[in-house]
Amino acid sequence: MGLFSYFALGTLFGLVLRKAEVISWFRIQEMFRFQSFHMYGVIMTAVAVAAISVALIKRYGITTIEGRPIAIEPKTMERGYRYWVGGSIFGVGWALTGACPGPLFALVGGGLSVMLVAIVSAAAGTWVYGWLRPRLPH
Fold first, then answer.
1. What does pTM read for this prediction?
2. How many CA atoms are closer than 13 Å to the CA of 136, on its beta-carbon side?
3. pLDDT per residue as tens digits for the range 21-32
């Protein structure tokens, strides 16, 4: 039953992304060309929901299903280079493929099998980071 519920939630999430046109290559290109507010509105809504959720978790001491407390460690920006570099790499990949990692599977499920290349590339990039991580300044 556990795996089925994850599959059902993932399917529902994919349908929501599809209906909201968040996985549309054209919508993403409109965003990067500053031609439409649609994607910026979706992103700002997601940030607002996340901020409210984190505030509620901290205020009411919400726990996990197992009863463990949810601890959100504060970020240390230092000079912020890793965030700038990582965000830039992410943004370039997003602009080139027309998709961020979240909707890649929804795009494949929607019939765009070419996005399998992006999934394999994202997995390879994650593997390379894991391999390089001990050698990188953190």
1. 0.66
2. 11
3. 888 878 888 888
HEC profile for 75-137?
A: CCCCCCHHHHHHHHHHHHHHHHHCCCCCCHHHHHHCCCCCHHHHHHHHHHHHHHHHHHHHHCC
Taking the CA atoms of 57, 60, 64 and 69 in sequence, report the sign of the dihedral they define.
positive
CA–CA separation, 119 vs 125, rounded Å?
10
Q: Exposed e or buried b for every residue in 12-27, given b needs 16+ CB within 10 A?
A: eebeebbeeebbbeeb
pLDDT in tens, 65-96: 888 888 888 877 777 787 888 889 888 888 88
| Cβ–Cβ < 8 Å for 115, 97 | yes
For residue 22, give the amino acid letter: V
